[in-house]
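__Record contents__

***
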Amino acid sequence: MRRSLPIEPFTIMVEEEILDDLRERIRATRWPDQVPGVAWEQGTDLEYLKRVLAYWADGFDWRAREREMNAFDHFRAEVGGVRIHFVHQRARRGRGIPLILTNGWPSTFAELLPVVPLLTDPEAHGIDGPAFDVVIPSLPGYGFSERPARTGVTTRSTAGLWHGLMHGLGYERYGAHGGDFGGDVATFMAMDDPEPVIGLHLSDLEIPPYTGPGSRALSDAEREYLEQQRRWDDVERGYSSIQSTKPQTLAYALNDSPAGLAAWILEKWRSWADTRGDPETRFSRDFLLTTVTLYWVTQTIAPSIRDYYDNRWLRPPIGPYDFVPVPTAVALFTGHFVPEGAPPREWAERLYDVRRWTPMPRGGHFPAVEEPGLLARDIAAFFAEL
């Protein structure tokens, strides 16, 4: 495999003074009063957040989390003029199928690490399927990746960067997987430059297909799905409204207050996952705080939420002739256990060449950490079929 991209090994190592400042800020939190009514109904529960922040300040071992993440192979490279961080883990035996995995918001590359050993060494984990060379880049403006100092940094432009990264690593053909914004990036990789993409695997459907003049009429199942999505949006989409209109106003508070940042992020991990209302039934407190800490120490909450502005206003909508010709698998985790609506297969088939459709028995918006075994097995089965 010939590599044409200059890359540098990278180690996560946060300065101690940044961690000391974080702890001081947590301890100095000025708490609001308890909201009347049902816990979580109007946002992050006060008592829950107090417990989490007490642990964040005096129990959370960031250095141990660094060691866990640094057990993987991290690199940085300049791709298309943007400095990108990525994990690159090769198949343990033989030649692996190249596969790029991309997270969404409010997540980081760390969400996808649990599936890496399952995909790079499936035989050792009882998975009947091919092994993979796994590449996990951090989105521009997330974690240790830079975001260009301009508007218009969309999932569609990021798709071009990911092609450049994979080609630069020496891969001529490769698969792509994603969820949330990562699913959008993977979709545009397969739509705009399908030739190198072996297959597309998605864990949810974020990009609505074209349903305007000339499209076929909506089915009953599609209408029911859109109605359920509307009901979900009425009570859950406030974050998206502010992030897609005035992200900078919000950024001052989230970049300055650990309590504010944790409240903003953890509420989404609770409500979007298959948690039944308790986030720690699905995620360890250490994992949740690793995610929040990555946003804090890199000061990337501000650039990450600009994704909502750029993609809402500066990414062209899907048109009547847009279609993804690459074989596509959908592992449907959201909708059944998170009440945002379960899209029917015919909805996906408006935009994708759907070859595999798998409603999952459990899991939600973050399947790589909620149900890594289910996700890895579905990925392996799909690419084995191809």
Remarks:
- The radius of gyration is 20 Å.
